[in-house]
Design a protein that fits this description.
The chain is α+β, with helices and mostly antiparallel strands. The chain has a domain of 134 residues. A twelve-stranded mixed β-sheet has the order 7-8-9-10-11-1-2-3-4-5-6-12. Strand 7 and strand 8 form a beta hairpin. The longest helix is centred in the N-terminal third of the chain and has 23 residues. The termini are far apart. The C terminus is likely disordered.
């Protein structure tokens, strides 16, 4: 064997060894997803665009786009939700600010010509809400599998059996939820469990090692929840039959795009919003309603 052939053979051997060692040390899909999820929890500041698309009989495409800008510390959040149904478009804005152990919420009431309202919620501590994301959380809890799906995306399968377990209602009651609310949560989660495991497509930015996009087909889950709500309603049998057909032929999907918070983002509720806001309530929150009543009484005094 001449020198040239020996050199070529040696180079090929080195290249093969390099490729083999690189493959050995390459992160698995599960490791890539785990690192990205941990990075998102460690630094949740960013802009999140939630897009929900529904195809419904008679109505065609119904969409909801919610752009959420969030700052971890001090905790502030700004939201713009745009709903489109047929030729109608409705936009609602809101702001959330943490002040010690009090959360201030300013929002446009879509049922009152988008009049600004405000509500407050007492927190358990003055620690920034973002701290709840920190810590050694097991981001793989409930994850059955993670497989590569091409172009830096991964199919993540979540275990539906973990959605609801015996004893959850008691835990919710301890957290202050009413019995009716806990019963409602349980029925919805149990209905979701029956649809089976949920597969979510997650895209990871290889440079930042953060999640950049999440795609979720939710048709089976939507139908299960809608059927549960319909079963509990007081609608007549005839109307239920119509609604069941409506549910059967409706489809829904959701995407979440994650990006850095724009440098010029201002998440503070404007002065004119705070001055115009009248006492309101946080939907589903009784303590907020009482707090707002107290605030209204104080203003009246």
């Amino acid at each position: 064997m001449n020198l040239r052939m020996r050199v070529k053979k040696a180079l090929c051997t080195v290249a093969a060894l390099a490729m083999a060692s690189g493959a050995a040390f390459a992160a698995s899909p599960s490791q890539v997803y785990e690192e990205a999820a941990r990075n998102m929890m460690a630094e949740p500041t960013g802009e999140y665009v939630l897009q929900v698309n529904m195809e419904m009989p008679f109505l065609g495409n119904v969409s909801l786009t919610n752009t959420i800008d969030m700052q971890a510390e001090p905790f502030q959040m700004k939201s713009e939700a745009v709903a489109k149904v047929l030729n109608n478009t409705k936009t609602v804005h809101s702001y959330v600010e943490q002040d010690g152990d009090v959360l201030h919420i300013y929002y446009e009431d879509s049922k009152a010509d988008n009049a600004w309202k405000k509500a407050t919620r007492k927190l358990k501590s003055a620690d920034p809400i973002s701290k709840r994301f920190h810590g050694d959380h097991n981001v793989l809890a409930g994850v059955k599998s993670v497989t590569a799906a091409g172009k830096n995306s991964y199919d993540v399968v979540y275990d539906a059996s973990r959605l609801y377990r015996e004893g959850d209602k008691e835990k919710w009651a301890a957290d202050g939820y009413k019995k009716e609310q806990a019963e409602g949560f349980a029925k919805v989660l149990q209905a979701l469990q029956k649809t089976g495991d949920v597969t979510v497509n997650v895209t990871v930015d290889p440079k930042t090692k953060r999640i950049s996009k999440v795609t979720m087909p939710l048709t089976p889950q939507m139908r299960a929840v809608a059927q549960e709500v319909l079963a509990e309603s007081d609608a007549s049998d005839a109307n239920k039959a119509i609604m069941e057909q409506f549910i059967k032929y409706s489809e829904i999907s959701m995407t979440i795009d994650c990006a850095p918070l724009p440098k010029d983002a201002d998440l503070t509720a404007p002065k004119e919003v705070k001055e115009a806001a009248v006492p309101g309530t946080i939907p589903g929150s009784d303590d907020a309603a009482e707090s707002d009543k107290d605030g209204a009484a104080a203003e009246a005094a």
